[in-house]
Amino acid sequence: MARIISVITQKGGVGKTTTVNALAATLNKLGRRVLAIDMDPQGNLSFSLGAETEDVRTIYDVIRKEMNALDCIQRCNTSDVIPSDILLSSIELDYTGKNREFLLREALGDVKKSLRLHSHRFTSESRCSDSKCACCQQIRYYAYAS
Ligand SMILES: Nc1ncnc2c1ncn2[C@@H]1O[C@H](COP(=O)(O)OP(=O)(O)O)[C@@H](O)[C@H]1O
Ligand SMILES: [Mg+2]
After folding, report:
1. What are the pLDDT tens digits along the chain (146 aa)?
2. Domain architecture of the chain: domains with CATH
């Protein structure tokens, strides 16, 4: 079962990035898979987790529905990460209509779907027997449940 933990406040310099780094490292040590999603245009979390931030697809592309979230995930040492960069700072101007508060939830729909598929395949005996099955490999890779 996946858990979503959000560390949010608009105020800067209060320890959000530090907290997420510590959480990711601790959960990783406890054997959990972690996907960190950097929602700060400064990209400090992406950088500190060791993500590539030059010329890469980011959460900005995901929210704009130009990229699938699953294709923007980078594997780093303590957690996987969907990085962010300065482009994200324009998102509030791009989306001013109603329901904009659901953009991130919608954008991460495929990540959630892959989790549901994962728990179905691995808790029942119906797992595909083909070890090279692209679908199953992707599901294994993106299985963020423990
Ligand atoms: N618990 C703490 N005690 C002391 N300093 C801290 C603590 N947490 C974070 N810091 C320091 O505070 C500064 C801001 O932290 P940061 O995580 O970047 O904040 P934010 O992401 O909210 O902007 C950094 O220099 C960081 O090392
Ligand atoms: Mg920060």
Report:
1. 688 999 999 999 999 999 999 999 999 999 998 999 999 999 999 999 999 999 999 999 999 999 999 999 999 989 999 999 999 999 989 999 888 989 999 988 888 877 766 555 444 444 455 555 554 554 455 544 43
2. 16-104 (3.40.50.300), 108-146 (no CATH)
Report how far ligand 1's centroid is from the alpha carbon of 16 (Å).
7
User: What is this structure's pTM?
Assistant: 0.81
Nearest atom within ligand 1 for CA of residue 11: 22
Give the span between the Cα atoms of 127 and 111, in whole angstroms: 19
d(CA 36, CA 24) in angstroms, rounded, equals: 7
Coil, strand or helix: which one is 35?
A: strand
Spacing, Cα 22 to ligand 1 middle (Å): 11
